[in-house]
Design a protein that fits this description.
There is one protein chain. The protein has two helices and no strands. By secondary structure, it is mostly helical. It has a domain of 50 residues. It is elongated, with a radius of gyration of 20 Å.
């Protein structure tokens, strides 16, 4: 009895692999990404996505703080 082959996918369910986001890195940044991917035995894309997900909350908080400060400065100038 032959078993149907299971489709192997590395990306989590729901990842939009048909709409990639391209990122330009400096040589040292890419070397670090390659090193981390090797340590984790994962693809560059997978590691970059993990780094993005770990850093997005801090980046969003920083951006919102900067926008609030700009808004406060604009109100003070009136």
């Amino acid at each position: 009895m032959a078993y149907p082959e299971k489709r192997v996918t590395r990306a989590p369910r729901g990842v939009m692999s048909h709409e990639p986001v391209y990122m330009r890195l400096m040589p040292a940044e890419r070397e670090e990404l390659v090193r981390l991917a090797g340590l984790k035995n994962s693809s560059l894309s997978s590691v970059a996505r993990n780094i993005f997900n770990e850093g997005i909350a801090g980046y969003r908080d920083k951006l919102m703080s900067e926008l609030a400060q700009r808004h406060a400065n604009a109100l003070a100038e009136r």
